[in-house]
Amino acid sequence: MGQLEETVKSLLRRRSMSMRQLATATGISVSTISKMIAGKQRVNLDYLRRIADVLGVPAIALAEAAGLTLNNASIGFSKRDDHSSMNALLEYLGIESWPALRGEIERELEKYEAYAQTDEGQQLIAEKYPIKRGQIQGVGDFLRDLDEIYDQFTRSDTPEDERWILASGILYFLLATDAIPDYLFPAGFLDDAIAIQMVRERLARRRDMKIQGSDGS
């Protein structure tokens, strides 16, 4: 089953809708929808928008699940000269702005860094990470970066203060109420990927502080 087909069928189950009901609501035949999401027919962007509207998700989420690389205009974004493409995407997904998203993620990471220092937090990572990690595939560099973070966290030679930073990113992946739901492949892992990047930034700052402290001693 392809990613688009999996995403559409998952959304249908969540809404207790049948393919026939989706066809009626969109005005697209069941046969056409089935062939398009299964990759047996060329993806029609207008059809994709209609399906997304009925299922209550951003059209770009279905477009990306179909493996399309689209600019803002082609998927129905309004063009604004004072918005970056990232802010346009976030606005379309119902998120105020890039700084707002980073601020929300940063607050979550701080909370999870404290939780990681408890036995409960560490046990949760040990039990839940392999399960959730095994459930996702095909979201590019994000998985590689996530695995690297987990590998560093589990290494015995990783300094304790760095382990808690690393663990905060893992706990975000496991526990956070996502700004973008994970079932919107692959856009749903955008905030998780940003969290991992922010973990790397926090690690770099922590290491810089250690170096500066060492030089000053």
Automatic annotation (TrEMBL):
Keyword flag Mitochondrion: no
Pfam families: DUF1232, HTH_3
Domain of life where this protein originates: Bacteria
Database matches in SUPFAM superfamilies: lambda repressor-like DNA-binding domains
Entry keywords, A to Z: Membrane, Transmembrane, Transmembrane helix
Bilayer topology term: Multi-pass membrane protein
Subcellular location: Endomembrane system
Residue ranges occupied by any HTH cro/C1-type domain in the UniProt entry: 8-62
Protein known as: Helix-turn-helix domain-containing protein
